[in-house]
Specification:
CATH architecture of the largest domain: 3-Layer(aba) Sandwich
CATH superfamily of the largest domain: HUPs
Largest sheet: 9 strands, mixed
Distance between the termini: 51 Å
Shape: elongated
Helix content: 25-40%
C-alpha cells in the first residue's frame, strides 16, 4: 500500500522570504545533504515548501533523525509513507486510508486525530473533509477515540500533486535560518557557559560561526585551550565545519599589567581582545564579532564598560544574550550540550592578573590615556602572531593545532 519511506522536511521562516526564497532553499538543501552524507538516503527533492528525502534503510532512521534535528532552517520533519493519489478522489482517499491502517496495526493508541495540509489545491477534497473521512476510517478500524486537542497520536497528512504522504510522528526541527545565509561571524569563546550559547544563537540566525579563544600561555597550561576545543567541536555539529583560533594572550596581559594601574586592566584586556579578534575576523572574512555578554553580569558588562570596550572595534559587535539572565543561559547551555564541559574548572585568562576591584564605570578619556602607555598596534600584532588555528569538522575528533598563523581560510 504505502510506498517508499520518505522524510518530509518542512520549513516555515524561509517561506516568508519572497524573491530571496530560492537562495535560502538552496542553502538549506545543501546543508541537509551535508548533514546526511554517508547515510542511506536518496536524492533530495523540493515540493511545495517542503523537501523530500527518501530513506532507503529504516535502520538508519535514528541516526538520520539526530542529524536532521541539528539542521537550522527546518521547522519540523517526519518519516512519512507515500501513496499515489491518481484516479478518482474517493478511490485515492480509500487507498490512503488503507495504507494508514497498515501502519497503525502495529501501534497502540487511546486517542488520535488527523491533520491534513493540502498543498495541492487542485485535489478536490478540502483538508477538513480529508480529516473527517480518514478519521472515520481509522475510528471504525481501531475503535480509538477522536481527540482534536490532546490526542495520543496525530496522523499528519500532506497532499501534494499526484501523491500524499502520511506520518505518525512529527519531529521538531532546529528552526531559524540555514547556516550560511547570514554571512560569517567570529565568536569570542571564553570556555564558560555563556559564549557557546551566544555562538549557537547566531548559527540559528543563519551565520557561519568561527571561534577565537584567548588563553594565558605561557603563564598557564593548555587546560583552557583543550576545553575550548571540546566546546567548539560540540558546536560545529550544528554547522558542519568551522575554525577555532587559539590566541596566546598571556604576554599581552603581562605588558598591560606592567604599564597600567589595576582598576582599568580588565577593560583594557577586553579592548585588546576585541582588536585582536577583529584582525583575525578581517583576515578570514568574518563580518562581525559575537560575544556572550549579558548586561550587568560581571564588572566588564556594565553599560559604561560595554560601550568603552566596544569602541575599540570597528566591526559590529553582536550580543545575542544581552537581555538574558544566568539561569536562562544555563538552561539553554544544558539543552545544547555544552554546559557540562563549560563548568569544568580551567585556568582562564580572565583570572590572570585580575585586580580585586575592577572598574565598573570606565571613562573613555581615562581608558585612552591608559592605553597611550602601551604600544597598542604592537600588542595586537603580538596576539595575532601567537595564534594557532584548528580546523574542525562535524564527525571528526578535534585535531591538534596545525598552524600558528592567520592567513585566511
Amino acid at each position: 500500500m504505502g510506498a517508499a519511506h520518505v522524510i518530509v522536511l518542512r520549513y516555515h521562516e524561509i517561506a516568508l522570504k519572497g524573491r530571496n526564497r530560492p537562495f535560502f532553499v538552496r542553502r538549506l538543501s545543501d546543508n541537509v545533504r551535508r548533514a546526511t552524507a554517508g547515510l542511506p538516503v536518496g536524492a533530495l527533492a523540493r515540493a511545495s515548501a517542503r523537501l523530500l528525502l527518501p530513506l532507503d534503510d529504516l535502520a538508519a532512521w535514528p541516526e538520520t533523525r539526530g542529524r536532521l534535528a541539528r539542521v537550522f532552517g527546518l521547522a519540523n520533519f517526519s518519516l512519512a509513507h507515500e501513496v499515489a493519489l491518481d484516479g478518482e478522489p474517493d478511490a485515492a482517499l480509500d487507498r490512503l486510508g488503507a495504507a494508514i491502517l497498515v501502519r497503525l496495526s502495529a501501534v497502540s493508541m487511546s486517542s488520535f486525530r488527523v491533520l491534513t495540509k493540502r498543498a495541492d489545491k487542485r485535489f478536490p477534497l478540502p483538508s477538513p473533509e480529508v480529516n473527517r473521512r480518514l478519521g472515520r476510517t481509522i475510528q471504525e478500524a481501531t475503535r480509538a477515540r477522536v481527540d482534536l486537542d490532546h490526542a495520543a497520536l496525530t496522523v499528519a497528512v500532506d497532499i501534494l500533486p499526484g501523491r500524499a504522504f502520511f506520518a505518525l510522528e512529527k519531529v521538531a526541527g532546529a528552526g531559524g535560518l540555514p547556516v550560511g545565509t547570514s554571512g560569517r561571524v567570529l565568536a569570542l569563546l571564553s570556555g564558560g557557559i555563556d559564549s557557546p550559547v551566544a555562538a549557537w544563537r547566531m548559527m540559528r540566525r543563519g551565520c557561519a560561526v568561527d571561534f577565537v579563544h584567548f588563553h594565558s600561555a605561557p603563564f598557564h597550561d593548555r587546560t583552557s585551550q583543550e576545553k575550548a576545543q571540546r566546546i567548539a567541536a560540540e558546536l560545529v555539529r550544528w554547522e558542519h565545519e568551522a575554525v577555532l583560533h587559539l590566541v596566546a594572550f598571556g604576554e599581552v596581559q603581562r605588558q598591560i599589567v606592567a604599564a597600567i594601574g589595576r582598576p582599568l586592566r580588565v577593560v583594557l584586556y577586553r579592548r585588546m581582545m576585541f582588536r585582536i579578534a577583529e584582525a583575525i575576523a578581517r583576515a578570514t572574512g568574518a563580518e562581525a564579532l559575537v560575544t556572550g555578554e549579558s548586561l550587568g553580569q560581571v564588572a566588564s558588562q556594565t553599560l559604561p564598560n560595554l560601550a568603552v570596550i566596544e569602541a575599540a572595534a570597528t566591526l559590529p559587535v553582536l550580543r545575542p544574550l544581552i537581555g538574558m539572565d544566568k539561569g536562562e543561559i544555563s538552561d539553554q547551555a544544558a539543552r545544547l550540550g555544552t554546559f557540562e564541559t563549560s563548568i569544568i574548572p580551567d585556568q582562564d585568562c580572565c583570572q590572570l592578573f585580575v585586580p580585586p576591584h575592577p572598574a565598573t564605570r570606565a571613562h573613555p578619556e581615562d581608558v585612552e590615556a591608559a592605553e597611550r602607555r602601551v604600544d597598542v598596534p604592537a600588542l595586537v600584532a603580538l596576539g595575532v602572531a601567537a595564534t594557532e588555528r584548528v580546523r574542525l569538522r562535524d564527525g571528526e575528533d578535534a585535531a591538534a593545532p596545525a598552524a600558528r598563523s592567520v592567513v585566511g581560510r
